[in-house]
């Protein structure tokens, strides 16, 4: 893998659902440039939920708790 997952499972689900809702609202309710922008942002949320990796979280140094526990066991 090229990346280490930094988003827990519950947050991945939440990101995917919020992204799908943003896409639906952008396409159905807003339309135009604002709707396209919201839909693209929603697509980014869905992608980060599916892959389990958030680039902004990685920039801030966020790691999953499992990785921390594995280091403590050594």
What does this protein structure show overall?
- Helix 1 packs antiparallel against helix 2.
- The protein is elongated and about 40 Å long.
- The two termini are 24 Å apart.
- The chain is built from 4 helices and no strands.
- It has 74 residues and is mainly alpha-helical.
Overall mean pLDDT = 84
Contiguous runs where pLDDT drops below 50 for at least 5 residues = 67-74
Our Rg estimate from Cα atoms comes to 15 Å
How do the SSEs run, as a string of H and E? HHHH
**Strand content bin:** under 5%
The major beta sheet can be summarized as: none
Strand segment tally: 0
Decide which structural class fits the backbone: mainly alpha
Q: What's the number of helices?
A: 4
Span from first to last CA?
A: 24 Å
Short summary of the structure?
This protein has helices at residues 9-30, 32-51, 55-59, 65-73. It has 74 residues and is an all-alpha fold.
Describe the protein's topology:
Elements: H1 9-30, H2 32-51, H3 55-59, H4 65-73
Helix pairs in contact: 1-2
Question: Can you give keywords for this protein?
Answer:
4 helices; disordered C terminus; elongated; mainly alpha; 74 residues; single chain
